[in-house]
Amino acid sequence: MIKNPMTTLVYLEKDDCYLMLHRVTKKNDVNKDKWIGVGGHFEEGESPEECAARETKEETGLTPANLDFRGIVTFTQEGYGTEYMCLFTCTDFTGEMKTCDEGVLEWVAKDKLGELNLWEGDYIFLDLLEKDEPFFSLKLTYKKDKLDRAVLNGRLIK
Q1: Bridge partners of residue 4, in order along the sequence
Q2: What does CATH list as the number for 6-72+82-137?
Q3: Are 4 and 42 in contact (CB under 8 A)?
Q4: pLDDT at 2
Q5: For the chain, is the Cβ count within 10 Å smaller at the N or the C terminus?
Q6: Rounded (5°) CA angle 61-84-45
Q7: Cα 148 from Cα 140, distance rounded (Å)
Q8: Rounded to an integer, what distance in angstroms lies between the CA atom of residue 139 and that of residue 146?
């Protein structure tokens, strides 16, 4: 069965930090050694909010109380295909953080994100989140692991 090309990515926020996942555990992981938010693929019948809440709970043990749908990010990469990611932030959540089986969870100060091994395009949407941009559509095209093109709301920016 082919994985659903629809995914979610959630950035939980606390004390000017994002909860980041250092993907160091899974084998054959397109995100191996990268730092990302939490999230994953939609299951049959899920809405973006349902998927984001389920994935956040599964990966962190935390239950989001307010998911803010911030944008759609379309990723294309040679040999990987296309992924349509629903991007969320969340400032209110409950529960106790648990160990994640996909990597190491760590609260990272927003002003330290540039020191992490992120996908190049992640810097673009993290900057949009920081600037509190209204809902956006971002298309990121990669050749191997290098960002080749970035199109924001239909306009080429890289």
Answers
A1: none
A2: 3.90.79.10
A3: yes
A4: 53
A5: N
A6: 65
A7: 8
A8: 14
The tens place of each residue's pLDDT in the chain, 158 residues long, gives 457 899 999 999 999 999 999 988 777 777 888 999 999 999 999 999 999 999 999 999 999 999 999 999 999 998 888 999 999 999 999 999 999 999 999 999 999 999 999 999 999 999 999 999 999 999 999 998 899 999 999 999 99
Q: What is the pTM of this model?
A: 0.94
Give the 3-state secondary structure of residue 103. coil
Q: Coil, helix or strand for 119? A: coil
**Three-class secondary structure assignment of 22-54:** ECCCCCCCCCCCCEECEEEECCCCCCHHHHHHH
Can you tell me the distance from the alpha carbon of 11 to that of 32, in angstroms, rounded to the nearest whole number? 19
Look at residues 54, 7, 48 and name the one whose alpha carbon lies nearest to residue 31: 7
Task: Indicate the Cα dihedral angle 36, 42, 48, 49, nearest 10°.
Answer: -80
Residue type, 149: R
H-only helix segments in 61-155: 120-130
